[in-house]
C-alpha cells in the first residue's frame, strides 16, 4: 500500500540529481508537450541506508502540467540476487494518480521489503495511454543497525579536509554503519598557516575530528603538503620541504597541529604518496626525522607512520621502507604504509611484478613478504614496525570488463578476509567511502562504497554484513585453499566459515564439518537454513563470499 505524505521541497537539486547510470538516470521527454513533466529523488542525502526494522521511506518531487493530471506515478522495487546482480522482476509495485499529488510537492513512498539487502527503486511517470514521460531510480540499503564501531582492522578514506563534502554528522554514522572503525583524512598545511607564523584552523578540521570522537571513530591523519601560500620562495621549485628551512617550517606546523588535536588523534602519517622519482629517500627521511621529533615531544604515545604509500606501485615491494632503513631511519617511525592497488586484478592473484623482491603484487604475496621484512628489522626498543595499508580499492569501471558494482563488492570483502588471514597489517583503509564525482567514465570518480549523492552501492551492504558477521574473529584455518576456491574459518569458539571463488565462476567447496543445523548468509545478510547430515558437505560458492554459521537456536 502506498502511503503519501506531502511536504514542501527544501532540497537542493544539485545534491539530489545523479547522472551516474548505475544509480540514477534521467530520460529526455518524449516530446515538447511533455517538457513540464519532472520527477526527481528528494530523500535527504544518506537517508537511504535504513535499519531492518521500521518504515522504509523514499521521497520524490513531481512537477506536471495541468492538462496531464491523469498521468500515473509508478514506483517499483527490484531486489539483487546472491551474486550481486539486479533481478529483472519487481518485488512490489505501487501506483498513484498524479491528480492526487499537488505539483511541486514531495511525496513520501512507504516501501515494504521482506528482508535485508540492497534494492533498486524505480519511479516512472506514464501518460494515460501508457507512454513513459519521465523516470528516475535510486538504491535503498536495508541493513542491521550497528551500535558499535566495526573491527579494529577496518578503515576507509574520507575527504573532510578538502571541504565540499557532506558534513561529518551525515557521513560518519554511515561509516559506522558500514562497519569501519577508522577513517583516513588530512590536515593541509597551507590551509592552516596562510601567513607565516599565524596558525588559523579551518572550522571543517575541528568539526570532522570532533565528530570522530563523538562517534567513536579513530582518525589516521595525514600531514601534508608544501605551503607555497605562506612561503612562496621555499616552494618555488618543489612542493616538498627539501631545504632545512622548509623542514623547520613544516615541523612548526606539525607542532601546532598536534598541540591542537593530539588528544583526539593518536596516529599520524607523514605525507601522502611522496614521489620518489622527484625526491630521494634521504630528503624524505630528513623530513620524517623532524616530524617524528615534533610529534613525540607533544604526544609521546602517538604513532608516526612513514612512506605514505610512496614507492614503486605504491610500495608493496617495500622499496620505501627499505630505503629509509638503509639510510638509518628504522627508529624514526612507528610503522610504514603502502598503497598496493591491484585493479582490475583480483586480490588473490594481483599482477606480475618486475624488478621487485616479489613475483606478484597480491595479498597472498605482499602481506607475508612485508611481515618477514619487519620481523628481520626490529626497532631498537624491540618492537617490529607496524604495517599499514592506507589506501586500497577497486573502482566501478564500465570500460573494463568485470569491473562492475558486484565485482567491487566481492573484492572488498575478499580483501579484508585475506588481510586477516595473513595477520600482517594493522589496518586496511578502503579507498574511498564516497564517489568523488558522477562521471561514469572517470575511474577516479567511482571508487566509493556510496554514490556521489550518498545512495548505497552493493559494496556498502557487503561491508556492513562482513563486519557484523565475521566481526573481530581471527583467522583460524583454511578448510579449502585451492587456487580457485577458498573456504576459511574465522574464530574457534563461535566459528564462521567463509567461502568464495577467485575465477569469477561458481564452484563446489568440499567441507568436513560436524553434522547439524547451519545458516548460510549471503552478502546482503539474507539467511538460508542448511542441514548437514554427514561430515562431508559440498558447498556451492561463487565470487561473492558466503558465510556458513552454526545455528545455535
From TrEMBL:
A GO term for molecular function: hydrolase activity, hydrolyzing O-glycosyl compounds
Q: InterPro entries from the xrefs?
A: GH, Glycosyl_Hydrolase_39
Q: Which domain of life is it from?
A: Bacteria
**Matches recorded under Gene3D superfamilies:** Glycosidases
Name of the protein in question: Beta-glucosidase
Q: Which organism's genome codes for this protein?
A: Paraburkholderia madseniana
